[in-house]
Design brief:
By secondary structure, this protein is mostly helical. The chain has helices at 3-14, 22-25, 35-48, 57-66, 70-109, 118-151, 165-188. The chain is elongated, with a radius of gyration of 30 Å. The two termini are 51 Å apart.
Length: 192
């Protein structure tokens, strides 16, 4: 007997939409237990009255088979499991938001507009260049195109494709290359 048998047994009682069976079905034989499976085992053990802290699949299957109210108890275990998983997700999200708030706070303490260094400066220059050159160019090409269609009595006129993608890709490649260089330097311990 293994954990997949426990998952199949729960599905046979609660149906294929049972969320508490899913962690057991995704376990690899001999692999490490995933946190959701541990949470499911705790929920099932609590509802079925299993006293063992680390029950085996055989113990859980015997407890399910010996319980005349297995469907009702497994439904309670499923509700407890879903509640615990939701609480764990909320705690993880709260921790992530707290960590991000700390990072944002540190960034806010830096009073320099360019946020120190030549790399952010290059990012600002390229971003500004895109904003004052490429965006207005595309906007004006669209205006010219609409006017041309209007003068042609609403007959579709080909779009004036003046946008040279190679220039934009060169700029984008430069930005991504600088980001990769920064990551490489961080890995090597050259910069903080």
């Amino acid at each position: 007997m293994d954990w997949k048998d426990v998952g199949q047994k729960i599905i046979s009682i609660l149906g294929p939409a049972s969320s508490i069976a899913a962690p057991f079905l995704s376990l690899i034989p001999g692999g490490a237990m995933i946190p959701t499976a541990i949470t499911a085992i705790k929920a099932i053990s609590a509802v079925l009255g299993i006293k063992d802290d680390n029950p085996t699949p055989d113990i859980i299957l015997k407890a399910i088979d010996a319980n005349p109210q297995a469907a009702g108890d497994l439904t309670k275990a499923q509700l407890a499991y879903e509640h615990e998983v939701t609480m764990q997700q909320m705690a993880y999200e709260a921790q992530s938001r707290t960590e991000q708030a700390g990072i944002t706070l540190q960034d806010a303490k830096d009073l320099r507009f360019w946020n120190s260094g030549w790399r952010p400066y290059i990012g600002w220059v390229i971003g500004t260049s895109m904003a004052v050159y490429y965006i207005p160019q595309s906007f004006m090409a669209t205006v010219v195109w609409v006017i041309a269609i209007q003068q042609a009595k609403w007959v579709l006129v080909p779009y004036p494709n003046t946008f040279d993608m190679t220039e934009l890709l060169t700029l984008l490649g430069s930005i991504l290359g600088l980001g990769g260089l920064k990551a490489f330097e961080k890995i090597k311990g050259v910069t903080k």
